[in-house]
Amino acid sequence: MIVRIDVGGIDDLTDWARLRAMLWPDDDATSHRSDLGQFLARPESAIGLLARDSKGTALGFAEAVLRADYVNGCDTSPVAFLEGLFVIEASRRLGVGRGLIEAVEAWARSKGCRELASDALIDNTAAHAVHAKLDFAETERVVYFRKLLEDAPALS
Ligand SMILES: CC(C)(COP(=O)(O)OP(=O)(O)OC[C@H]1O[C@@H](n2cnc3c(N)ncnc32)[C@H](O)[C@@H]1OP(=O)(O)O)[C@@H](O)C(=O)NCCC(=O)NCCS
Fold first, then answer.
1. Which listed site, 5, 36, 120, 147, has its alpha carbon 20 to 30 Å from 51?
2. Can you identify the CATH homologous superfamily of domain 3-8+46-133?
């Protein structure tokens, strides 16, 4: 299968938002479309890549950002961070995901990065396997916590 990978832009918003809603279904395509507007407003530090077949059908996407804060397991800064990687089910296991990651790596290198980082939920073992196949090394496992802070009682 011939796959084209291009930097996502305004013309890709409909397809891109639809793919995003498949990966992150807590938000619908309309909400993702609005988020993408903000994403596209920072081209110096964020990139989206769209994979399409020879007919132009969108097959998947990858998003990455530059992170200057500490990134678990990394030694350099800024780090390129893979925020999302998705390929539609019918096109999986054909190398599309690998192609998207290679394009993210090329962008990260062009930004002077020496590390590309990523994360996956602890029970998403398929994602762990894909990361390993794509030459990512596991660094750390973390558990996030939060505590809701109620309004403090007024001091007397
Ligand atoms: C993860 C995902 C993007 C992979 O896309 P893909 O186009 O199928 O990936 P590729 O065909 O390029 O495969 C890349 C490598 O991972 C391997 N791989 C792909 N899916 C795999 C799976 N479910 N389990 C184990 N290995 C897998 C492939 O065999 C390949 O390795 P190889 O080249 O050594 O054979 C796709 O399965 C997906 O969208 N999953 C749901 C979303 C998700 O979990 N995203 C985050 C994952 S990092």
1. 120
2. Gcn5-related N-acetyltransferase (GNAT) (3.40.630.30)
Task: For residue 52, give Cα distances in angstroms to 7, 62, 105.
Answer: 11, 12, 19
pLDDT tens profile 25-80: 999 999 999 999 999 999 999 999 999 999 999 999 999 999 999 999 999 999 99
Atom of ligand 1 nearest to the CA of 91: 7
* Candidate of 133, 134, 136, 138 to mutate for ligand 1, largest count of ligand atoms within 8 Å of Cβ: 133
Nearest CA to ligand 1 atom 21: 130
DSSP secondary-structure letter at 76? Answer: S
Pocket of ligand 1 (CB under 6 A): 23, 85-87, 92-98, 120, 124, 126-127, 129-131, 133-134
Q: Please state the pTM of the whole predicted model.
A: 0.94
